[in-house]
Amino acid sequence: MHRKELHVVSTGKQDPEQLVKIIEKIHPFIDAVHIREKERTALEVFKIVESLEVSQVPLSKIIINDRVDVASAKGVEGVQLSNQSLPAAVVKKSFPHLRIGSSVHSVEEARIAEMQGADYLLFGHIFETPSKAGMTPRGTSQLKAVCEAVTIPVLAIGGIKPEDVKRVTLAGASGIAMMSGILLAESPLAEVTAYRQKLLIE
């Protein structure tokens, strides 16, 4: 059985300096950090990665959302694609060295992403979360259906608390991805430690 992964995804609500300081503290306890800054330019994202590099955060732990150009230019681990991004097959052909994640919301999307060459999937939202207010969560039953439909790892995201980790991993998830639950917490390091312990136990 593969080690369960813990990914942290930037919220887009913090200034770069604050974000970098938090990641600098927590990166030893996580497997990847996703730079998901939809409102920032390619240059701004590039500079965030540079700051992380200066702070001794390994490039092998950095995943950039959507911006394949920045990911390739900086030599980071990979890129996270959405349904508005380039297709995984196109990215895989042009940038075979990048680890490619695809954000999916159904079994059909999951199967398509796998066929196109995605290395792993991000599926959610699993539970209720303020960032998806008013939207019905997909729950662990749909998570299980997605995990059973593909052979590549599936990471769960959305409203997951430490006490939910067991339910998520029992549904077949290869790990979890967290946003505000860690980055906007009073003590991000304490929260990361709590999630990591649960992922090690389960």
From TrEMBL:
<dbReference type="GO" id="GO:0009228">
    <property type="term" value="P:thiamine biosynthetic process"/>
</dbReference>
<dbReference type="GO" id="GO:0004789">
    <property type="term" value="F:thiamine-phosphate diphosphorylase activity"/>
</dbReference>
<dbReference type="InterPro" id="IPR022998">
    <property type="entry name" value="ThiamineP_synth_TenI"/>
</dbReference>
<feature type="domain" description="Thiamine phosphate synthase/TenI">
    <location>
        <begin position="8"/>
        <end position="182"/>
    </location>
</feature>
<dbReference type="InterPro" id="IPR013785">
    <property type="entry name" value="Aldolase_TIM"/>
</dbReference>
<dbReference type="Pfam" id="PF02581">
    <property type="entry name" value="TMP-TENI"/>
</dbReference>
<comment type="pathway">
    <text>Cofactor biosynthesis; thiamine diphosphate biosynthesis.</text>
</comment>
<dbReference type="GO" id="GO:0005737">
    <property type="term" value="C:cytoplasm"/>
</dbReference>
<protein>
    <submittedName>
        <fullName>Thiamine phosphate synthase</fullName>
    </submittedName>
</protein>
<keyword id="KW-0784">Thiamine biosynthesis</keyword>
<dbReference type="InterPro" id="IPR036206">
    <property type="entry name" value="ThiamineP_synth_sf"/>
</dbReference>
